[in-house]
Amino acid sequence: MAQGMSNSAACREVGVNRKTGNRWTYGRTVKNETGPDYVYAPIAEKKEAVSERFLSEDERVQIADLLCAGHSLRSIARRLSRSPSTISRELHRNSNPVTGTYQPFRAQRRAVARRARSKEGKLRRDPELKEFVQLHLGKRWSPEQISRVLPAAFPGQPGRHLSPETIYQAIYLPHRGGLDRAPGQLRTRRKHRRKRRRPDQRVTRFRTAGLTISERPAEAADRTVPGHWEGDLIVGKDNRSAIGTLVDRTTRYVKLVHLPDGRGAEHVRDALVRTFEDLPLSLARSLTWDQGSEMGRHDEFTLATRVPVFFCDPASPWQRPTNENTNGLLREYFPKGTDLSVHTAADLATVAAELNDRPRKTLGWQTPNHHFSRLIATVE
After folding, report:
1. Is 183 within 8 Å of 189 (Cβ atoms)?
2. Residue 207 to residues 299, 304, 314, Cα–Cα distance (Å)
3. Most-buried pick from 11, 19, 78, 157 (CB within 10 A)?
4. CA dist., res. 127 & res. 216, Å (int)
5. Closest CA to 250 of 333, 379, 374
6. Which residues, 6+ apart, have CB-to-CB distance to 344 below 8 Å?
7. Tell me, what's the pLDDT at 174?
8. Edge to edge, what strands does the sheet with 254-257 contain?
9. What is the arithmetic mean of pLDDT over 19-47?
10. CB burial of residue 135 (10 Å; 0-12, 13-18, 19+)
């Protein structure tokens, strides 16, 4: 017909009935008494450009033909240069639910209909649902709590059931739902969503990139080899004074770092260098620290001592469990809200010695000092 033939002549040329040609040209609607009518669009209709990552109608025809020929899913995937999981999902989603057969043109219509669904989001389309969610956000409910009560609040209405992620998106992306994002709306009080990275993409926040805890050797994680230390600062009144704390992951041996001149990065660097200089190389294998600004000179510390520093993920104190436990014990000696600058290096040594002479259940009721002294004697 594009070459000037009439519908009848074109149908004779192709070998189809004239009525079929009419349906191809103008489309048709088939009445369905048990549900929505079936609408078949004209095949000459201009089609919207679709990304190549989606299966095309021609590919769906090939899938149907190859299935009829007895090919396996992997064989079909190889022929179409697609992933086997793509073919598997296509058959699962678009096969006829009644007969279980795969009909390519029906599958194409189903796929197109799904792509054409509204991008406005449920909350924008449903004022009552939006009001319900907004009301409970105002009561300081979390998105997950709201999501869990929606099935009971709207029974038998799955279109009004939301996942927590949908609510989060409606808060952080107003065009997806338009929920109010007033201060304190969520417990984190963030105005923007925090970017999350996979473990292999995480980086430290220092100018000179540091090693993350995921790169720490396995021997440090399972505590089989001594010499892997955890460190942190305990801070005094008004954040004006601090004491550095170090503890060996294997022996639980504690060292306290005197910081009389302040807690800046250069002061912490110099104090740690002096502390690690007294240790044999076999007992100074690594140091694990949080991402506090006091470790901004971590690269210079490593250059001076050859001790690599591994940084915990942000807001993850449980990744330094031994040090966190030690800091809790130290607060008996250095209470919160007190001036820590009044304690001398001799005072810190006395406290460290007292902790190291306590028997520990995890060490079979031996003391950290007992284990550490044996290691020192072995090295020497």
Report:
1. yes
2. 10, 18, 16
3. 11
4. 51
5. 374
6. 258
7. 66
8. 211-212, 309-311, 286-289, 228-235, 242-248, 254-257
9. 74
10. exposed
State the amino acid at position 353 in one-letter form.
A
Backbone angles phi, psi at 231, to 5 degrees: -140, 160
Average pLDDT, the chain: 87
- CA-CA-CA-CA dihedral for 216, 317, 336, 253, to nearest 10: -40
Q: Measure Cα distances from 372 to 245, 247, 253 in Å.
A: 17, 11, 7
Which sign, positive or negative, has the C-alpha torsion 349, 354, 355, 360? positive
Record the tokens describing residue 123, joined without a space: 């909350």
Vertex 262: Cα angle to 257 and 264 (nearest 5): 95
257 vs 231: CA distance, rounded Å: 10
For residue 334, the SS3 value is: coil
pLDDT at 101 over 70: yes
Query: Of the candidates 91, 98, 105, 96, which has an alpha carbon nearest to the alpha carbon of residue 40?
Result: 105
In what helix (H) or strand (E) does residue 247 lie, and over which residues does it extend? strand 242-248
Do 40 and 54 contact (CB within 8 A), yes or no? no
Give the Cα separation of 286 and 28 in Å (integer): 73
Provide the angle, in degrees to the nearest 10, between the axes of the packed helices 265-277 and 298-305: 20
Q: How far apart are the C-alpha atoms of 339 and 334, rounded to whole Å?
A: 9
Q: Give me 164's structure tokens.
A: 């927590």
For residue 289, give the 3-state DSSP assignment: strand
Distances (CA, A) of 318 to 137, 185, 262, 289, 292: 30, 27, 26, 11, 15
**pLDDT tens-digit readout, 168-214:** 888 877 666 667 655 456 666 666 666 665 655 556 667 788 899 98
Do β-strands 254-257 and 242-248 pair in parallel, antiparallel, or remain unpaired? Answer: antiparallel
